[in-house]
Amino acid sequence: MSGGAAGVPKPLPSSGPKSLKEMPHPLATSSSEEMGPALTPSPDLLLPRSIADKDLSLPNGTPVDTSSPASSSSLLNRLQLDDDLDGETRDLFVTVDDPKKHVCTMETYITYRVTTKTTRAEFDLPEYSVRRRYQDFDWLRNKLEESQPTHLIPPLPEKFVVKGVVDRFSEEFVETRRKALDKFLKRITDHPVLSFNEHFNVFLTAKDLNAYKKQGMALLSKVGESVKYVTGGYKLRSRPLEFAAIGEYLDTFSLKLGTIDRIAQRIIKEQLEYLVELREYGPVYSTWGGMEVELSEPLEGISACIGNCCTALEELSEDMTEDFLPVLREYILYSESMKNVLKKRDQVQAEYEAKLEAVALKKEDRPKVPTDVEKCQDRVECFNADLKADMERWQNNKRQDFRQLLMGMADKNIQYYEKCLTAWESIIPLLQDKPETK
To answer: Alpha-carbon distance 70 to 92, whole Å?
Structure first.
């Protein structure tokens, strides 16, 4: 994986530099005077009464609650020690394991075993086992974005690595990617909508995925097509405050993580450089002890102590590389995915405002609202409801993930210093004066 720092977006110019403590929670409710309704067109774009009085609902007929769900937590990403895991009984389990290297004439690649166990009626069998390569996971994600444009799609680990710097076939890299792909599928599995997507079903069950890939190249889902045709011809007047707060928070959040990622990489680099020095430093005491008979025992003890510290530092650096950095990069990519959904939502609202304005300009006492305007309104409300639900789910996952990450980091550092302390304490008796024998 390449570092996520290079693509870190800058904070919004209008907001100025803000800390996470100063950011309002994007899902917190505010007074009606401050926030206004979920959609706030200009006064000249007020809805005709036939639309304004209508109860909003999604295309499937589900009523929409346009109010933002209240939340007492702030965007400080507080690390609460309580779990928010829901008590739902899971009926779908997916794991990624057993990576294998394939060497062909034209290319070399890695495949992973994807195992599925389920009791859902949508599956013909209770268990499946298929092999997938990275580009298959990429195909799945693209299909989910096409067919579920109103939802936040979990990110994949970055595909490209710098040749000569990272060996993409090394055991460490393959294992790090396997963990990331496993987490990607588990995110989808836990989602109440994405887990029922037909493309996800095909990905988990089809023995020959290439046949489905070729079949779907010329087809676009109806929902995805309805969003894709929206071009830059529509300009959004203003983003509703609650979604503007989400966008502002995501910019600040990704900026903070990008900074932590860059510094963490520098720390790891310096640790590895220090490790090289330590490995040269310890043996010097051992060779010196061969020349000093009276000091040989304490000098050998110092050499062994430094060797133990080397091992502890190597383990600490590996933990940061394999466990700490991947989580940072996943959430940097997660922020970008959420921003993309926000942009799609803005496009649909801009289209809605433009069509509503066209209706308002007609010289009629009671203009009949075209069906396409109502459909556009439904799409906006669908985006609002799905985006807010996914944002709340993302915040819950983020709190749990970072709590585990930071607790793990603290535990690894404690272990490192305890090992170093034990190593140095072990040589104290060797350095103390011994009574001379008569």
So the answer is: 30
